[in-house]
Write a structure and sequence with these properties.
about 350 residues, alpha/beta, 2 domains, five-stranded mixed beta sheet, Rossmann fold, single chain, four-stranded parallel beta sheet
Length: about 350
C-alpha cells in the first residue's frame, strides 16, 4: 500500500479502499495509457470511472501529447492535473521541469477544457463543474488543470463569480480609489495573477493610474467562445449580434496587459477579440534554475515589467507622457540592455 510522504501531518493523503491508486513511477506513456483505459471505461466496459492523473505539467502535453490526442479522439473523460506548473513556480530544477507551453498545446485539442486557476476556490469550482459535466451530463470532454507548488494566501470566494470562472475570466473586486489620471485593464492567470495584483498597487501608488484586475482561468475557453460567437454572427446576417465573454467583460478601448507563466502565444489567443491595445507578457524561452523572483524578473513577467508595459500602452495612446516609462525603468532597476529571454 502506498505510504504518503506527509502521513504524519495533520492533513495527509488517505487512500480509499473502495478506489484505486496507481503509482507508476517515471513512466509517462504507461501512466497516460492507464489513465486512458479508465477514462474510456464508460464506453469500452459500460463502467463509468473518473480518473485523476497528477504529474509534472512539463511531462504531459509536451512529452506524451500524441497519447493525449489519441485519448481525446476516443472521447476520454477524466482529469489531467499538470502539477508544479508554469515556467517560474518550480525554482531550482531547470528547463526540463519548467513548463511554459502546455496550455497552448491543450488549446488545440477540441474536447480538452484547460484551466490555469490561481486560487483554491477557482480550482474547486472547476473540478465540481467538470465532474458534473462528465458524470451527470455525460459530456465527451476531459479537463486539463494546472496547479502550482507555491505557498500563498487564498482569498474567499467572491459573490456570483462561479459562472464566469467556468467561462474563463472574471473581474476581481475593485479596491477603493480616488481620482486617477488614466485607466488600464490587467489580466493574469495562475501564480502570475499575484504579480498582476501587485502591479495594480504600484500603478496606483507610484503613477496615479487606476486598473481593473481580471483573473483569467482559461484563455483557451475565452478564445473558443469568441470564435463561436464570431462564426454565429457571420452566418446569421440581419439578426442581433451576439457578444462573446471577452467582448462583454473587456468592452471599451482602454489598454489591456495580460501576463501569465506561459509563452506569449497563450494570452494572445484572445488578442484578436479585444478592442483595446493588447500587450502580452510571457515566459518565452528555455527554463532556468533560480529563485521564483529572479525567474519572473528574467522572463519579464514580474510586477515591475507589468507596470512598464501598462505605462507603455498608455503612452502610445497619448494618455501619459513617454517620460514615465524611463522613470519607471530607473525606479524599478530594470536592465534594458540584456538579451531577450527567448534568446538567452
Amino acid at each position: 500500500q502506498y505510504e504518503p510522504e506527509d502521513a504524519g501531518s495533520m492533513l495527509y493523503y488517505r487512500e480509499a479502499r473502495d478506489g484505486q491508486l496507481l503509482e507508476e513511477g517515471i513512466t509517462e506513456a504507461g501512466a497516460l495509457s492507464s489513465w486512458t483505459a479508465a477514462a474510456t471505461s464508460y464506453s469500452v466496459h459500460a463502467e463509468p470511472m473518473l480518473p485523476f492523473y497528477i504529474y509534472y505539467s512539463m511531462f504531459g502535453f509536451q512529452r506524451v501529447g500524441d497519447l493525449i490526442w489519441a485519448a481525446a479522439d476516443q472521447r476520454a473523460r477524466g482529469f489531467l492535473f499538470g502539477a508544479t506548473a508554469g515556467r517560474t513556480t518550480l525554482g531550482g530544477e531547470g528547463l526540463q521541469h519548467q513548463d511554459g507551453s502546455s496550455h497552448v498545446i491543450a488549446a488545440m485539442t477540441p474536447n480538452c477544457r484547460a484551466y490555469d486557476p490561481a486560487f483554491a476556490y477557482e480550482l474547486a469550482i472547476i473540478v465540481d463543474h467538470g465532474m458534473r459535466q462528465m458524470m451527470e451530463r455525460h459530456a465527451d470532454e476531459f479537463y486539463y488543470i494546472t496547479v502550482m507548488n507555491e505557498n500563498y494566501a487564498h482569498p474567499s470566494l467572491p459573490d456570483g463569480v462561479e459562472e464566469d470562472v467556468i467561462r474563463g475570466m472574471y473581474r476581481l473586486p475593485r479596491p477603493e480609489r480616488g481620482t486617477a489620471k488614466a485607466q488600464v485593464r490587467l489580466l493574469g492567470s495562475g501564480t502570475i495573477l499575484r504579480e498582476v495584483i501587485a502591479a495594480s498597487e504600484l500603478l496606483a501608488q507610484d503613477w496615479n493610474i487606476a486598473s481593473d484586475i481580471y483573473s483569467v482561468t482559461s484563455f483557451s475557453e475565452l478564445a473558443r467562445d469568441a470564435r463561436e460567437t464570431e462564426r454565429w454572427n457571420r452566418l446569421h446576417p440581419g439578426q442581433p449580434e451576439r457578444r462573446s465573454h471577452v467582448d462583454t467583460l473587456l468592452a471599451g478601448a482602454s489598454p489591456i496587459v495580460a501576463a501569465t507563466d506561459y509563452v506569449r502565444a497563450y494570452p494572445q489567443l484572445i488578442a484578436a477579440y479585444t478592442r483595446g491595445r493588447f500587450i502580452a507578457l510571457g515566459t518565452d524561452g528555455f527554463g532556468r534554475s533560480d529563485t521564483r523572483a529572479a525567474l519572473r524578473s528574467f522572463f519579464e513577467v514580474d510586477r515591475h515589467q507589468i507596470v512598464v508595459a501598462a505605462l507603455d500602452a498608455l503612452a502610445r495612446e497619448g494618455v501619459v507622457a513617454h517620460d514615465a516609462m524611463g522613470e519607471a525603468i530607473k525606479r524599478y532597476g530594470i536592465e534594458t540592455e540584456c538579451v531577450a529571454p527567448w534568446q538567452a
